[in-house]
Amino acid sequence: MSSNDSFHVTSSSASGMNTTWTADCDDVKNITMAIPPHFAGPGGGASPEDLYALALLNCLIATFKVFAEKSNLPFEQISGEATLTPGKDATGKMIMKSIAMSIKVVGSTDKEKCQKLVEKASASCMIINSVNTEKSLTIEIV
Questions:
Q1: Domain spanning 48-141 has what CATH number?
Q2: Given strand 77-88, what is the order of strands in its sheet?
Q3: Which of 72, 74, 70, 81 is nearest to 104 (CA)?
Q4: What is the CA angle 133-138-141, rounded to 5?
Q5: Which end of the chain is less congested by CB atoms within 10 angstroms, N or C?
Q6: How confident is the model over 98-114, as pLDDT tens digits?
Q7: What is this structure's pTM?
């Protein structure tokens, strides 16, 4: 990635917190967005909180996939789960307090190398490194 690379997104909504809206990114158009029921919204679409958790989890998965391929580490599948928990910071501001991520890699030929690459991916993921949210990670290699 060069320093000139960028990611462009757009979003547009009519008024009203019960109204869904759409967001676009370079390769995916018309993502239905909604305020989640947790915050008195209607649900029925991805929330900013969903996208935040997905960004962290999928950055880890993408980074692992790159490292595994460059390290010639075959595997059958990687899957993950994450639980994002909102809370308040020391000043009382609402924040995304913590995220607990769980990664499972199936069919690796070298479990020790695979474990190390998941840990390296977690430490190298630019999205994870860009946020102050407390992070925890469990890894299962089968």
A1: 3.30.300.20
A2: 77-88, 94-106, 134-141
A3: 81
A4: 145
A5: N
A6: 999 999 999 998 999 99
A7: 0.90
